[in-house]
Design a protein that fits this description.
Radius of gyration: 60 Å
CATH class of the domain at 3-131: Alpha Beta
Mean pLDDT: 74
Structural class: alpha+beta
Low-confidence stretches: 210-246
Distance between the termini: 198 Å
Number of strands: 5
Number of helices: 10
CATH architecture of the domain at 3-131: 2-Layer Sandwich
Strand content: 5-15%
Largest sheet: 5 strands, antiparallel
Helix content: 55-70%
CATH superfamily of the domain at 3-131: Ribosomal protein L10, N-terminal RNA-binding domain
Strand order of the largest sheet: 2-3-1-4-5
Order of helices and strands: HEHEHEHEEHHHHHH
């Protein structure tokens, strides 16, 4: 590999490092060319690529891309998986391939800011794929909305049923009562007013009958005093009779 080829390889690896969301490093000793092609095909479905690299050139590319963590993984034969899509699906493809062929050894890696050891890598490989997780998340988000819509529908339906029952009973006509209807007393109210007025009228009549008249009040003189003649008139009659006798 001449200088230009090395420079082009460094640029390509640096671009892969910068574009990847996750990077897995494996020891590829024992893998055949057909097996490597098979693995690349599986990883392509997860929007990932598999590349056998030279450690010295990759260290330079990692320095250019600003990924210092990668240098510690560049020991011995190394192949890198650059994941730009579904990390769980890419990890599942590698573990499934290795169960069938047993030629890869996981060295380490990182997923964005998280460093991964062999145990973490296997845990990620057991996760559902991104499409499955998105479907589950959509179901979780839609469940409360669906319940709310159903609840509102039941409330509206119940309210309409209650209003219908009230309308059947004549309690809701849709028209406001007229002023004449509000002012006119009902027959029952008039009967109650008449019953309430009878005791008051009887009480007034009883008070009139019991009230004392002017004669019984003591303001007029007794009957014997009213018939007696005034004393001055009697004295005048006596003096006249005495003059006639003289």
């Amino acid at each position: 590999m001449n200088r230009e080829e090395k420079s082009a390889a460094i640029k390509e690896i640096a671009a892969d490092i910068e574009a990847a969301d996750s990077i897995f490093a494996v020891d590829y000793r024992g893998i055949s060319v057909p097996q490597a092609a098979e693995l690349r095909s599986k990883l392509r479905e997860a929007d990932a690529s598999f590349r056998i690299v030279k450690n010295r050139l990759t260290k330079i590319a990692a320095d250019q891309a600003g990924e210092e963590r990668l240098a510690a993984l560049l020991q011995g034969p190394t192949a890198l998986t650059f994941v730009r899509g579904d990390t769980a699906q890419a990890a599942k493809a590698i573990t499934t391939f290795n169960k069938q062929h047993g030629v890869l050894t996981f060295k380490g890696g990182f997923m964005e800011a998280t460093s991964l050891d062999a145990a973490a890598f296997e845990s990620i490989a057991k996760l559902p794929g991104r499409e499955v997780l998105n479907g589950q998340l959509a179901g979780i988000v839609a469940s409360p909305i669906t319940g709310l819509v159903r609840g509102l529908g039941s409330m509206i339906q119940g309210l309409a049923l209650q209003l219908g029952q009230i309308a059947e009973k004549g309690l809701v006509t849709g028209e406001a009562p007229t002023a004449e209807a509000e002012e006119a007393p009902t027959a029952e109210a008039e009967a109650e007013d008449e019953k309430a007025g009878e005791p008051a009228e009887k009480a007034e009549e009883a008070e009139v009958e019991e009230a004392p008249t002017e004669a019984s009040s003591g303001n007029e003189p007794p009957a014997d005093q009213a018939d007696a003649p005034d004393e001055p008139e009697a004295a005048e009659e006596t003096s006249d009779s005495n003059e006639e006798e003289g």
